[in-house]
Each structure stands twice: as C-alpha cells, then as structure tokens.
C-alpha cells in the first residue's frame, strides 16, 4: 500500500520513484482519491528534482492508459501521426496529413484547439463550413480507412490523467519541466494509436522551447519515451523564431495551406511540410527520407495531394467549394494596412508577440471559454531578414471590429526589431 506523502517525500529528496508508486499516483489522481494539493506538490518536486528516462516512460504509459485508447492495429505499419509543440502560423497538419495520405500513409489524427498565442488545428478546420471535428469512433475509423486521413478534436476520454494534470500544472507553475511535458505530449500520442510518430519540436520566441538546446532535450526525451513504449518515433527541431509562412489566423491559414497543396508556394512553410511528410512516410512506408521527399514533391506537382485534401474535407462534411474558390472562405469586414514605422532590416520578430497580435484581432483565445473569429488574423508582407522602407506595408491586419485594431497594432510593432545591417539567419530545420 502506497502513501502519497511518502511518494512526495521520496521525490523531494531526489530519489527515483518505482513503477508501482507512479501508477498509484496516476490512478489515484485520475479517480479523484488523491487530492490536487498532493498532486501539485509531487509535480513541483518532479520539476525541481527531475525524473529518469525510465520513470518518464512509466509515467507516460500510465497516463496513456488512464482512459480510452484508439486501436489502429488494422492499419499495420501504415498508421502515422505527427505532433507539433505549437507555434504561430503553423498550419502544417492541414498540408502534411493529406500529402502523406495521398502516398499511402494512414493519418488518423486527434488535434487540439489554440490557446494563448499559438493556434490549433481544430479551430483552423472549423473555419471550413460544415467540417465536423467530432465523429463517432466508427466513423473516425471508416474515414481513415477509406480516405487515408481523418482529423478530429481530442476527446475527453483520451488520456484523462493528462487532461487533469495539465490543468493543475497550468496554475501551479509546473508546466516547464521536460519529463512532465514529454509524458504529457507522448501519453496523448500513444493513446492515439499510431505506430509511427513524427514530432515537430519548435524552437524560438514563438515556442515553448526558446533555444535549440532546450528543444533538443525535449525532443530526445520524447523520442526515447515513445521508443520505450514500442512506437517508431523521430523528431525534427524547427525554427519558430519567426512565424511559419505568411498567414496567421484560422481561415487565412486554410487559404495558405491550400496554396501549398496546389503547388503555388515553395517557401519556408513548404520546406518544413516536405521535411515532416517525408519523415512520416519514411517511418510508415519504409522508404528512405530522400525517396519519400521526391514522392512528396511529385504528389504536390501532379495534384494528388490537393485532390486528397478535397476528398478528406468532403468526407468530414466540409464544403469544398470554399477550397476550390478561396475567396468564399470567411473574410473580415476590416483589412488594415500596417506600415513600417522606420526604414531598416527586420532583424527579429518576437513571434509570441505576433501570435498575441493575431489573438487580439479575434483569431485566438486568452481563455478556454473564449470564442474565435474564423476570419481574423494577419497576413505578413515582410519577415525577418527583409529590408523595408519607412511607411511600407509590412502586414495586413484582418478583424471584424475597429476597436480591436490599436492593441493589435501595438503588440505587432512591439514585436519587431529593426537594424541597419542584415541579420544572421537561423536555419529553418535545426536538426533531426
Ligand atoms: N503541450 C502538452 O500537451 N503538454 C505539456 O505539458 C506542454 C505542452
């Protein structure tokens, strides 16, 4: 018989916990027999004293099995998932999921909503009229089997221990701890059932992890934990020190994703998507990354990836006419031209600030209960490294309320740094 008091004391003294102790904690906290104050004391002790990889893997497995799990074994090795640690303008799932499905992968995926300065795939998909993010398990499986891609919202019965623990960590300053982040993310991925998982660990001012070193430590922990739990896992560390692509905001991001899938744009967003998709395909199809990359480029060029997008959206009830004619997507009544306050190179964009500006326009939520405006957001006309003249347009701000503009403009401008010399550029993909 375990006692929470002893478990907290043990971790406070820096000792590793046993499998029995970790499972006792997760089961008891999920059921409600362990109170929040003891759970929060243990989380703080873990933050301060850390966890070994073995403890982290047990914690992950216990959380993954605290509720329902999705069984994708019928897809054999073909099931593949991706996870991004969150960023600004990150619409990669909208592009990568149909691209991978057009080449034979099975992307049966649960995605989250946006919170704070980062966006969420479910909100982006809901800007397509009719798209259903909530399906029965049978429908979810059937669409994944027939089309090769299905993306729904995260159900509350998947990894409920993580849901409860994450809410607690959020208010007890215990989020920024690698074993807790790794187990939280990987528990949901494991419960999601895919055999292969590609992690896009973002790094920079718009991300959780601010430096490549921190991002690498999180990526290593997640890959080790996922591998220990029997999955094929790979991680890319990608730059989030500048928004990805040019469009930020839900319907605006759908528009940009469609353009990439139609082969109309070959920029930073395109390159990150090709890298993610080719790593996913390499894991689930057994191809080399180089071979998978060539196939991805071809599937975009010959229209297969775009046609798969239309099939997928239609299967989930979405009106595909808004994708075929992008001007039919929700549009804001106000489009404000934001001009450069001075001449110079944009040497840095504090990307969390740019995400906040988009939220202030109505594109995101400050708290879970807030509603979002699908048409609101930002379209960048200049990014880090670009030279702009004073008064030149650097972004269009879209909103449905004039009153929201001043605060958003302020947040945007405060995020920019100008210099007279061009800045040193960060790589787009730091490492795999
Ligand atoms: N995202 C998660 O899902 N969990 C964390 O702990 C941090 C980010």
List keywords for this structure.
Aldehyde Oxidoreductase, domain 3; alpha/beta; Pyrimidine Nucleoside Phosphorylase, Chain A, domain 2; 4-stranded antiparallel beta sheet; single chain
How would you describe this structure to a colleague?
The protein is α/β, with parallel strands linked by helices. It folds into 3 domains: 4-50, Up-down Bundle (Transferase, Pyrimidine Nucleoside Phosphorylase, Chain A, domain 3); 73-157 and 174-324, 3-Layer(aba) Sandwich (Pyrimidine Nucleoside Phosphorylase, Chain A, domain 2); 332-419, Pyrimidine nucleoside phosphorylase-like, C-terminal domain (Aldehyde Oxidoreductase, domain 3). The protein has 17 helices and 13 strands. It has helices spanning 4-12, 19-31, 36-49, 53-64, 92-101, 121-125, 137-147, 160-171, 178-191, 212-228, 250-261, 268-285, 289-301, 304-315, 321-324, 351-363, 405-414, and strands at 80-84, 107-111, 149-153, 196-203, 232-239, 247-248, 334-339, 344-349, 377-380, 387-388, 393-399, 416-419, 429-431. The strands form 4 sheets. The protein has a 4-stranded mixed beta sheet with strand order 1-4-5-13, sandwiched between helices. A 4-stranded antiparallel beta sheet has the order 6-9-11-7. A 3-stranded antiparallel beta sheet has the order 10-8-12. α10 (212-228) links the parallel β4 and β5 (232-239). The longest helix is centred in the middle third of the chain and has 18 residues, at 268-285. The termini are far apart. The model has no long low-confidence stretch (mean pLDDT 96). It binds uracil. Uracil (URA) is lined by residues 166, 175, 180-181, 184-185. Residues 166, 175, 180-181, 184-185 line the site of uracil.
């Amino acid at each position: 018989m375990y006692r929470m008091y002893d478990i907290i004391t043990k971790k406070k003294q820096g000792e590793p916990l046993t499998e029995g102790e970790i499972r006792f904690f997760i089961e008891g906290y999920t059921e409600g027999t362990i109170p929040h104050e003891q759970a929060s004391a243990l989380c703080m002790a873990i933050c301060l004293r850390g966890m070994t990889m073995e403890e982290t893997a047990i914690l992950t497995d216990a959380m993954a099995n605290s509720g329902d799990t999705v069984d994708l074994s019928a897809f054999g090795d073909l099931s593949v998932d991706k996870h991004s640690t969150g960023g600004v303008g990150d619409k990669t799932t909208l592009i990568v999921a149909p691209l991978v499905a057009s080449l034979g992968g099975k992307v049966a995926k649960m995605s989250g909503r946006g919170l704070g300065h980062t966006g969420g795939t479910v909100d982006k998909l809901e800007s397509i009229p009719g798209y259903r993010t909530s399906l029965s398990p049978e429908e979810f499986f059937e669409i994944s089997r027939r089309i090769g891609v299905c993306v729904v919202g995260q159900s509350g019965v998947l990894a409920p221990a993580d849901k409860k623990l994450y809410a607690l960590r959020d208010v007890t300053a215990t989020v920024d701890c690698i074993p807790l982040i790794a187990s939280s993310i990987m528990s949901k991925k494991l419960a999601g059932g895919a055999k292969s998982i590609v992690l896009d660990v973002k790094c920079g001012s718009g991300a959780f992890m601010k430096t490549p070193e921190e991002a690498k430590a999180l990526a290593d922990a997640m890959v080790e934990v996922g591998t220990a739990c029997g999955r094929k896992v790979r991680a890319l560390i990608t730059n989030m020190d500048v928004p990805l692509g040019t469009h930020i905001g839900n319907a605006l991001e759908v528009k940009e994703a469609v353009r990439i899938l139609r082969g109309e744009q070959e920029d930073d967003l395109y390159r990150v998507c090709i890298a993610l998709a080719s790593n996913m395909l390499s894991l689930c199809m057994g191809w080399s990354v180089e071979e998978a990359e060539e196939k991805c480029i071809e599937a975009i060029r010959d229209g297969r990836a775009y046609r798969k997008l239309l099939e997928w959206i239609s299967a989930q009830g979405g009106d595909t006419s808004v994708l075929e004619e992008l001007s039919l997507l929700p549009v804001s009544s106000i489009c404000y031209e934001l001009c450069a306050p001075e001449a110079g190179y944009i040497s840095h964009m504090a990307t969390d600030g740019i995400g906040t500006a988009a939220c202030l326009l109505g594109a995101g939520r400050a708290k879970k209960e807030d509603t979002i405006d699908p048409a609101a957001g930002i379209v960048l006309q200049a990014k880090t490294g670009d030279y702009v003249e004073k008064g030149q347009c650097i972004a269009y701000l879209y909103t449905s309320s004039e009153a929201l503009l001043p605060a958003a403009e302020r947040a945007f401008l405060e995020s920019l740094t100008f210099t007279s010399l061009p800045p040193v550029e960060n790589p787009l993909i730091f490492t795999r």
